[in-house]
Write a structure and sequence with these properties.
Layout: H1 55-61, E1 77-82, H2 88-106, E2 109-114, H3 118-126, E3 132-134, H4 137-147, E4 150-156, E5 162-163, E6 165-170, E7 185-188, H5 194-206, H6 211-214, E8 217-220, H7 224-232, E9 238-242, H8 256-259, E10 260-265, E11 269-270, E12 273-276, H9 282-295, H10 299-309, E13 313-315, H11 317-322, H12 336-344, H13 349-352
Parallel strand pairs: 1-2, 1-3, 7-8, 7-9
Antiparallel strand pairs: 3-12, 4-12, 4-13, 5-11, 6-9, 6-10
Helix pairs in contact: 2-9, 2-10, 3-4, 5-12
């Protein structure tokens, strides 16, 4: 494999900064470099107070306010962290709306921020700088192993708690299979991305290719949007994203579906999570999780979840078992297949979770 690109000029302009990583983090072997542990600067969200346009939302939410078993401490303040899976400002705006709705539903106060990397959310939760993490699948697995982070809710899209990874390329590239990627310029998302790194890495290995030697050049682009744009603009020959990340830029690039095609899909992957730091009081976790679950069923909450994160529902453990027929002993066990894929890909979780 060629050198990992560190020059950001190779990437399309995006508010989420591109991430450069060492050659070793692309090797997919047991020497994978640990994720960096810098906790990102928090981007606080000022919670908008209810005004006349918000009365409809307030009336809708009135039926989902969780009745407290005891008075809610006035000083209770929680911080939600989001991974930069798509354009950061879009996520932040949705985080603002979700925080506002949660404030009305729980009586707690909320701030939100979008980390500059996936690892940033993991480390923020470990350092108690974030209480609630909207963690992608692989980041949850790492955060659980390293800091005991607890998953309470699974996201649902297109009627299922699963999704897939894709590899995309320009329609005229002549690339039609994994074999055609040999020696090409390739964009991953982030070392802690499930669909933008882990599952494509395992897919290459399963097809008999050594990712360390396979590509002519490989980069970490920092977000799925960045990968899509890099492929569309010809900055790279192909890239790994979630299914179907092309749709996120279709408004600004109406020909994206014609110009960029899919050449590979992974097996199903458990969806991303709403997770809580380990030592957050159980009653706080319960209250927030119940509020999220309830307002995800009503227009104001569902619209906030859909606008950036494309979430159409949330599922707790009982719903996962009864509605979606997933037979697992716990929510955490739902993510065991991801741990298996990491081992198969040669990524040693023990290396990723070593103390700093």
């Amino acid at each position: 494999m060629g050198p990992v690109v560190t020059d950001r000029s190779h990437l399309p302009t995006d508010r989420s900064p591109a991430l450069a990583r060492s050659r070793r983090s692309l090797a997919g072997d047991r020497t994978t470099a640990p994720l960096h542990s810098r906790v990102p600067r928090r981007r606080s969200v000022t919670i908008r107070r209810l005004t006349a346009p918000g009365l409809v939302a307030a009336l809708s939410l009135a039926v989902i306010v969780v009745t407290p078993a005891a008075p809610v401490p006035a000083q209770t303040k929680l911080v939600m962290a989001f991974v930069p899976s798509v354009e950061a400002q879009t996520i932040l705006e949705s985080g603002n709306r979700i925080a506002h709705l949660l404030e009305m539903a729980t009586g707690y106060h909320f701030d939100s921020f979008v980390a500059t990397s996936y690892a940033g959310v993991i480390e923020a939760m470990g350092a108690r700088r974030a209480d609630i993490g909207w963690l992608n699948t692989f980041s949850y697995v790492i955060a659980h192993e390293k800091y005991g982070v607890e998953v309470r809710l699974v996201t649902v899209r297109f009627g299922t708690p699963y999704y897939r990874a894709e590899i995309i390329t320009q329609a005229t590239s002549g690339i039609n299979s994994l074999a055609d990627l040999k020696g090409k310029r390739f964009a991953f998302v982030d070392p802690a991305s499930t669909s933008g790194y882990l599952f494509p890495l395992a897919g290459l290995k399963k097809a008999g290719y050594d990712p360390a030697q396979f590509f002519g050049q490989a980069i970490f682009a920092g977000s799925h949007n960045n990968v899509v744009l890099a492929v569309y603009q010809g900055r790279v020959d192909a890239g790994a994203v979630y299914e179907d990340a092309r749709a996120t830029v279709q408004k600004t690039l109406p020909d994206i579906m014609q110009k960029v095609k899919v050449v590979w899909k992974s097996d199903p992957i458990p969806n991303d999570t709403v997770s809580f730091r380990r030592d957050l009081p159980a009653d706080v976790k319960d209250r927030v999780a119940k509020a999220l679950l309830r307002f995800s069923e009503l227009p104001p909450g569902l619209d906030a979840l859909k606008s950036a994160l494309e979430i159409e529902a949330l599922a707790d453990y009982p719903l996962l078992v009864t509605k979606y027929k997933i037979n697992v002993p716990s929510l955490d066990a739902f993510y065991d297949p991801v741990r298996d894929v990491a081992r198969y890909a040669g990524i040693n979780l023990e290396d990723l979770i070593k103390p700093r």
